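Bumping my old thread because nobody answered last time. Still need a sequence for this structure:
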């Protein structure tokens, strides 16, 4: 994995002292800007927009009535090896603390020095635990996910791993309707990290992550950060606030963009006494260390200023305005009979035979148990197919249902399914009855098969892409190829993700009983890291073959690092191969093709090195020698002048070894069955043996077979 050496001054700064408040927001954002430098412009434009917005907000406050009080729905994802460590009561205590802090109703606000009492701001933002899910079902707003024992999450990408089911975390709820808070064990002694909107994070990562021992005011919370101020601080970042010292690393030329917070040189730890002076504010009343956006202990944090409130209200009412209109705080009204189709699980995407058997997920969203429902499906505008389901599905439970199969021709399709008459009654909510999905059935290919990516369509007709993270994947690149005008490329240089898999998959190929099948392709690749480095995680190119539409696959080719690259030196800019930097590789597909129809997948496993190209893919057949076909084994050439090959039509399961003896019965040489290589072949070298008669003895578990061999010059 390549290493970046890049300095960046960001608008968040977090200290690193052990045992003191430690925020991961800045470092996470730094990492993203290093990976995607264009984000710096996005961040700066967002800052400019907030500066103008808070000024407009101040003008509004002068002429308009007090802003309305709003409620923001919150979903709390507890992602721990023991999620019970954070109780419902602890979560409720955090929501209560937020409501006090954001409405200037915290009892310790009286400790704000008199000189700043007039600057205290009231955001009139309330927070509630969500009362309905994104699918309009009842909820308590708490999701608990159990991780592996002792698992903690890095603040990299704002602790992104905590935010996805497939990385051991919990998927966000709709960011437009909910403020997502993840409560987890953060590594590196961090208390929290925010992914604010407008800073280039994927929307499903927006929200905050809080160390579980600094969340709420009771339960597993620690002794220093026990008033819920870590969440108050991180949500301040979420709504656009900088740290009060201006994030300029101790300088006095940049402040936090808020006019009613004093200029401050650096963060403040612990519980200092008032007044506190520093290099930027050298006279009383000094710096506002009791502000929620400083680094003091929870017991010494007391206020947001009116200027900070103006910025937060601007972000809320403009960048995240949909939170204001969300119905997440309102419990849904359940009807008695409500059968819903959550999804269609199959068919999906590319299918490999023309017989489809739809599988759907049926959910009971009604108050009554669901005992019967009619399910219909339709392919394009074809005839309706029905299925009468019967069972006993409790309220808010779901099950998979397999529907009757049908056949389709070659083409692309939309499959729509819907429910009707739950428990023999009218459905109380028809808005969730229907689900649909797209799939296609492509024409099969025959041998010989060629693909040079010369046409603009990508993936080519009949091909498919597997791109599970919906990020970088295989693409067509023009004007780069092995004697051609295009090739397939994956940009590992910009794909800053470890061990992510992406497949480029051929159509289904019918070998039609071919004796032997071989794949040939051109490859060009480079690495970012010195190829001589040891212990490095390299990009990997694999060739897999599947006979069951990717349900399973066999790896027949795997190369990485020095074994893969075609430029022998590290390349730290985007690699584009020269005409001579291509290599022709081959793979024997015979064993898999004998199982029937197959697909070939070119798999990239990224470790952030550099680009990999493939071109001029050819899959061809070769005829089997008639003797090999009849006897199952062939010794050739016979006579030989030295090199002898023992080739098997199929590798015998009971073969132990192959030995060679001279005419006097003296042992010459032997090779074990495990040494059989490409082409089902063992190689022997008799160059230094005298001319004459030899015997090739095939030794099986319970038998033997001898073949006469002549050596001549």
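Sorry it took so long. Here it is:
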């Amino acid at each position: 994995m390549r290493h970046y050496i890049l300095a960046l001054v960001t608008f968040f700064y977090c200290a690193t002292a052990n045992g003191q408040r430690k925020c991961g927001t800045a470092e996470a954002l730094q990492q993203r800007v290093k990976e995607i430098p264009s984000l710096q412009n996005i961040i700066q434009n967002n800052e400019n927009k907030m500066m103008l917005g808070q000024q407009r907000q101040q003008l509004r406050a002068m002429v308009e009535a007090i802003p309305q009080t709003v409620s923001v729905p919150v979903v709390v994802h507890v992602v721990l090896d023991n999620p019970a460590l954070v109780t419902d009561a602890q979560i409720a205590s955090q929501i209560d603390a937020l409501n006090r802090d954001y409405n200037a109703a915290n009892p310790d606000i009286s400790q704000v020095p008199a000189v700043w009492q007039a600057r205290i701001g009231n955001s009139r933002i309330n927070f509630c635990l969500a009362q309905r899910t994104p699918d309009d079902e009842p909820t308590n707003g708490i999701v608990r996910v159990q991780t592996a024992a002792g698992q903690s999450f890095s603040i990299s990408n704002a602790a992104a791993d905590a935010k996805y089911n497939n990385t051991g975390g919990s998927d966000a709820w709709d960011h437009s309707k909910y403020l997502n808070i993840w409560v987890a064990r953060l590594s590196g002694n961090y208390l929290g990290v925010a992914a604010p909107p407008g800073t280039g994070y994927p929307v499903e990562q927006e929200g905050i992550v809080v160390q579980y021992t600094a969340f709420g005011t009771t339960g597993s919370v620690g002794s220093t950060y026990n008033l819920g101020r870590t969440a108050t601080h991180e949500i301040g970042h979420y709504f656009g606030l900088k740290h009060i010292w201006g994030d300029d690393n101790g300088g006095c030329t940049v402040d936090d963009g808020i006019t009613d917070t004093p200029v401050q040189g650096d963060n403040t730890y612990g519980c200092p006494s008032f007044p506190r002076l520093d290099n930027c504010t050298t006279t009383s009343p000094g710096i506002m260390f009791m502000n929620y956006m400083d680094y003091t202990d929870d017991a010494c944090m007391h206020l947001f200023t009116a200027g900070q409130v103006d910025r937060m209200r601007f972000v809320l009412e403009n960048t995240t305005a949909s939170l204001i209109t969300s119905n997440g705080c309102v419990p849904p009204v359940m009807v008695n009979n409500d059968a819903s189709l959550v999804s269609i699980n199959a068919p999906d995407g590319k299918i490999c035979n023309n017989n489809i058997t739809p599988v759907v997920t049926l959910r009971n969203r009604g108050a009554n148990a669901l005992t019967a429902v009619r399910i219909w499906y339709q392919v394009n505008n074809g005839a309706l197919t029905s299925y009468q389901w019967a069972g006993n599905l409790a309220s808010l439970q779901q099950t998979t249902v397999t529907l009757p199969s049908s056949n389709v021709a070659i083409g692309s399709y939309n499959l729509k399914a819907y429910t009707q008459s739950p428990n023999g009654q009218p459905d109380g909510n028809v808005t969730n009855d229907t689900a649909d999905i797209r799939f296609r059935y492509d024409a099969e290919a025959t041998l010989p098969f060629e693909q040079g990516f010369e046409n603009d369509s990508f993936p080519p007709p009949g091909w498919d892409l597997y791109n599970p993270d919906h990020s970088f994947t295989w693409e067509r690149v023009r004007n780069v190829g092995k004697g051609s005008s295009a090739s397939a490329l994956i940009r590992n240089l910009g794909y800053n993700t470890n061990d992510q898999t992406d497949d480029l998959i051929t159509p289904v190929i019918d070998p039609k009983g071919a004796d032997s099948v071989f794949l040939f392709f051109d490859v060009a690749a480079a690495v970012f890291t010195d190829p001589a480095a040891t212990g490095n995680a390299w990009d990997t190119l694999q060739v897999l073959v599947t006979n069951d539409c990717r349900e399973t696959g066999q790896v027949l080719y795997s190369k990485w690092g020095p074994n893969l690259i075609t430029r022998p030196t590290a390349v730290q800019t985007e690699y584009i191969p020269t005409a001579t930097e291509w290599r022709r590789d081959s793979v024997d597909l015979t064993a898999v093709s004998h199982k029937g129809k197959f697909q070939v997948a070119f798999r990239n496993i990224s470790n952030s090195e550099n680009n990999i190209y493939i071109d001029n893919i050819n899959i061809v057949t070769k005829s089997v020698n008639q003797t090999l076909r009849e006897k199952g084994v062939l010794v050739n050439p016979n006579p030989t002048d030295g090199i002898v090959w023992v080739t098997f039509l199929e590798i015998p399961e009971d073969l132990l070894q192959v030995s060679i003896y001279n005419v006097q019965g003296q042992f010459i040489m032997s090779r074990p069955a495990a040494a059989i290589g490409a082409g089902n072949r063992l190689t022997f070298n008799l160059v230094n043996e005298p001319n004459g008669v030899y015997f090739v003895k095939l030794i099986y578990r319970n038998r033997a077979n001898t073949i006469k061999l002549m050596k001549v010059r």
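The first strand starts at residue 70 and ends at 80. Let me know if any region looks off to you.
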